[in-house]
């Protein structure tokens, strides 16, 4: 009998899963409460996959043998509750992709911050070494679409906690947990521990032959790691202690050891600057070393890596004022890292949709480095409350253009205007890329 798979959500992961499931002989139905983007609608029509948009028809959904839930849909959603109540198994898109990956290997990266950079650098190391790999997950194509359309022997996947919530068998050969900070608490009943448990699920199914790379300097990771039954080979990274296996940085040099072999290189050769990027680079190098990639190749890749768009991306310098696009900073910790690396007086563009942010985390840095705050969001009260007593002026703006003009007005030669919003972008923009692109355009139009 054909298995009926219902997919909730018709975005990249939902449509990717639909295409793969259809190809593998499932009876597939896609349901999206909102409207589908044209390209996704076309994908489904071309593949002959039944779908609905603007509604979730209960009888069609609750007749499923299995449901794949898109990561953006919370557990408290009414239809999700009914699916759970009926006891229909729920999986995530990475679980479905994992079922059909064949003998391919997986390097999976999760964490609150740094995961996109670490994923991109790990992929770059693999490609430099001549491995045939694909970049999937939250960066690039969905994992399921890649497996359906262009399978590869190696997948480098960026994975969110939401995707890990609904895995059962998913097992990466190499798992990286960059760090854990308070993020997305709105999705975890505001219980930090629930979010922490989600992150550790990345190592849940790993076996002794697999590798688990984590940051030994991350307080929360270390506080919780012993509560989980981890069977894989643990490879910590640190700047504070010399670890026997994994990687550490001492006196400006990075040392990596995963087996008998030992590699070292100077942090001054890293293409990525800033302390947080030294952690990202260490994690990627350890992953590369466990794949038996030659150290010359790893060194080369780390030196010529191009940083990502919307992540501390230099836009332009206008009349001595430098503009930086860090639109990808969608939580307070990301903004903390951005501010920490600032060496000039900073005008900070902040705001958007707040996911339960605690701004006290950046208060000290703001006091030390920020001369003006430009709010870019529909509701900026919390920012005024957090920084009103230490920064003057704090100005409200309602568009990227307005924010850039206001920032430029307060800036003098030698200042930096930093877009590092600490918030999601959905109030005024399509997504963080759209926010970053509008910001860059506004700077270029000055």
Automatic annotation (TrEMBL):
<dbReference type="InterPro" id="IPR005762">
    <property type="entry name" value="MurD"/>
</dbReference>
<protein>
    <recommendedName>
        <fullName>UDP-N-acetylmuramoylalanine--D-glutamate ligase</fullName>
        <ecNumber>6.3.2.9</ecNumber>
    </recommendedName>
</protein>
<feature type="domain" description="Mur ligase C-terminal">
    <location>
        <begin position="310"/>
        <end position="423"/>
    </location>
</feature>
<keyword id="KW-0133">Cell shape</keyword>
<dbReference type="Pfam" id="PF08245">
    <property type="entry name" value="Mur_ligase_M"/>
</dbReference>
<feature type="domain" description="Mur ligase central">
    <location>
        <begin position="109"/>
        <end position="287"/>
    </location>
</feature>
<dbReference type="Pfam" id="PF02875">
    <property type="entry name" value="Mur_ligase_C"/>
</dbReference>
<keyword id="KW-0436">Ligase</keyword>
<comment type="function">
    <text>Cell wall formation. Catalyzes the addition of glutamate to the nucleotide precursor UDP-N-acetylmuramoyl-L-alanine (UMA).</text>
</comment>
<keyword id="KW-0131">Cell cycle</keyword>
<dbReference type="InterPro" id="IPR036615">
    <property type="entry name" value="Mur_ligase_C_dom_sf"/>
</dbReference>
<keyword id="KW-0132">Cell division</keyword>
<dbReference type="InterPro" id="IPR036565">
    <property type="entry name" value="Mur-like_cat_sf"/>
</dbReference>
<comment type="pathway">
    <text>Cell wall biogenesis; peptidoglycan biosynthesis.</text>
</comment>
<keyword id="KW-0573">Peptidoglycan synthesis</keyword>
<dbReference type="GO" id="GO:0008764">
    <property type="term" value="F:UDP-N-acetylmuramoylalanine-D-glutamate ligase activity"/>
</dbReference>
<keyword id="KW-0547">Nucleotide-binding</keyword>
<keyword id="KW-0961">Cell wall biogenesis/degradation</keyword>
<dbReference type="InterPro" id="IPR013221">
    <property type="entry name" value="Mur_ligase_cen"/>
</dbReference>
<dbReference type="Pfam" id="PF21377">
    <property type="entry name" value="MurD_N"/>
</dbReference>
<feature type="binding site">
    <location>
        <begin position="111"/>
        <end position="117"/>
    </location>
    <ligand>
        <name>ATP</name>
    </ligand>
</feature>
<comment type="similarity">
    <text>Belongs to the MurCDEF family.</text>
</comment>
<dbReference type="InterPro" id="IPR004101">
    <property type="entry name" value="Mur_ligase_C"/>
</dbReference>
<keyword id="KW-0963">Cytoplasm</keyword>
<keyword id="KW-0067">ATP-binding</keyword>
